[in-house]
Queue: 3 jobs
Job 1
Amino acid sequence: MTRTTHRVTSGLVFLGTRTLDIVMIGNRVCATLDRLDAQVGGFSVLSDDTVTIRTADFELCIDIKADYHVAALGRPAAHFLALTLTRFDPDEDQDQRCNQSIMAHVLQTLHRSLSPDYVQWIDPRALLSSADFEMATTLPEEEPANEDLACDVVMETPKAMPRRHTLPGIEETNHVLQARLTCDDPIEGALRTTFREDQIARPDSTDDIREKTTPLRLSVWLLTITLGLFALPMAAALAVFNLLRGENLRLTAQTAALTGTFITFQTFGTTASAMSALQSLLG
């Protein structure tokens, strides 16, 4: 994966000929972004080999390249699935870590479904085999309490295990493998760290329904005052709600529409017939 100030690039390498469905790949990437709380705002299929996914913060381009030369392999691959993430408003180091985290989760999803031979990560020279990438992106259920202790296990293993006929324990083997991934291989260690440290900017899960801009909040109050000219109790209740929970234009518009509907029914004397029709529909 090649990093610049604005762009992050990675890819999947296929040595043999494969039939890749760009639409299916794009849909799976969209599902992954939804799980990461990155709301997809646009999905464009530009050709049989290219698809573009847009969110409010970045654009992800997926491109299938045939006979692509992979520098780390020294020979061309039959297919190379290139993923290019471009952030619209880069914010130095924080956004770079966020881009890496998003790309890592997308690569993990595509790796599970497409089973590539290699995964390109960090820079063009960093090429992980399929097995190495799976090990680096699969976190154990329970992390070691102290990573330094895990590194010491690797260094002390030859001295502390003179037992020739005893297999190592599960916990001991887990610590050794964890230390190797974290300490010995910087590529796999960095990739595992990306999954361990969630750098993705997720929206706050609060119940704040207040409009974000001043003109929208002003529109809510103007609509509430207008509603008070026709139905003062509804306008008063809506004003109290706006003061307690915040101004929400959608709620105000829905309240005004329902109030206007029932005022119309009352004016033409069709309220009873309308309620009976509604009751018959509801059973």
Note: The beta strands are 2-3, 7-14, 40-45, 50-55, 58-70, 75-87, 118-120, 127-129.
Job 2
Amino acid sequence: AQQQLLVSARKVGMAEVANNVLHNIGNVLNSVNVSAELLNEKIVHSPLDNLVKVGDLLNANKDNLNTFITQDAQGERVPKFFMALADYWKDEKATISKELGQLANHIEHIKNIIATQQSLSGDTRFEQITDIGATIEEVLQITEITEDGVTIKKDYDKLSPVQIDKIKLMQILVNLLHNAKDALDKTSIPDKLVTIKIKLKPDEKLMIEVRDNGVGIPSENLERIFLHGFTTKLQGHGFGLHSAALAAKEMDGSLAVHSDGVGKGATFTLEVPYKVVAKANA
């Protein structure tokens, strides 16, 4: 029964990551759509039709262009039209180049998100050589927490890559960062901050700490927060932090929480064995 629960937690964790991937791709596609609509609007309202009309006018007066441009009322406006057109297209080129650059960035972002998901789903090993700092960067990209005006402060020890279950680690971190984001969404403070700390403890435990300055946790909820089904969210299922705690336990580690109370933020601390990859003898 315990093993079945662990397998279920793992599946829920992967589903959580996949759900975030789809959600974030949807957000990026919205940005792609905005850029595409702007480019389309530029094309629709381009003065090309006026240029065609001027071309027809010049063609109609091709036998006496000099007289037409210097003495005719319509012809006298032609040089000014071309000057205005040059300025317009100069600005339009800058706008289009900017939007095309943003489109390229959005598409690259989507590719990176999909590549991250594929790298997880395609690796069947439970443990793999993992750079903890790089993994956290992947999770930050998946959760897009900085898109909501949240500042991320990083305090990382310089550690060697470790042998760890990367999928479980990402599952835990996705849950913790979403929890921090929800806590910050519920507060009106201007300087929303999440501090992520990576430390090697004296007892050879790898510690990853996620601290936010959000709404905090009432003392009566601290002992229940990892229980299955417990949630304070209106649409929560109460399995996110529970599955994260189970994943930590399955990694021979632990997940703990601390808060000084309502309005004083919260700190989640993950501790797992520090398994450094042994270097082969030369």
Note: The first helix runs from residue 2 to 44.
Job 3
Amino acid sequence: MTQPRAALIAPSAGLAACVRAYISRSTLGADLQPLERLNYFPATPLCGMSWLSHGESYQLPTGDDDTAPQRLPRMVFFGPQSRPTVSRNPGPAEGFMLMLMPDALHALTGVDVGALVDRTLPLHQVLDADWCAMAEAVLQAGDDASRVRLIEAFIAPRWQAARQLGAVPVRSYEDWAQGLAVRAMASGVGQSLRQAERRIKAWTGQTLRQLQGRSRAEAVFFQARDAVAAGNVDWADLAAGSGYADQSHFCREARRVTGLSPEVLRRRMLEDESFWIYRIWG
């Protein structure tokens, strides 16, 4: 038996303002219990593409949604997610994900990102034939290095032609949100705050306030992860140091993004295989 594998792969420097990361996951050969075959994902402002090269995957209903689990095709597109999501692999599976900045996707394709918030769709329903042909080649590739090469060879020239003035490599959601605000104010004819907000919503499908909330939550997550590793977690101090009004405010935001309180999330990250994405994200 082998251990489940998960990896976060950085894009090349020339695509760092467009591609946030690649994610690879495999449970082939791993002896997992049914609950360990779940995959818990946080809410995210990102969008992207997902490939399933082996096995099956089902998107599970969350919250008050009482629909049946949805079997996902081998190639899907997902928009920004305003709430946490859960998927399930009934058996061994292997997959790969491309995480794109939503403003970059809009610049590359003209896709209305706002219409894709909280949606997961077959790839061909969102992207054109050239993108779908690239995706099919990625699905057939034999390893992660080949997948990255195929994606970057396709995106790099298009990004070179489409990239917006002022777009910079994304190191954190906070830097990205601030950069969007600057670009939105400098773009177009009108430079009022209302017009800048409209541009940000058109580029990302989300308001600047929503993006700033996600950036603050990400910053606290990284601080908390470091504190957990050091064995010294003080949620009240983390909340105060990150600009939350109080610990309750921080806990509400954590539940919106992850579905769990900070302390429960900490335990699940340490003990639960299905929270693998939280352990590798950085």
Note: The radius of gyration is 19 Å.
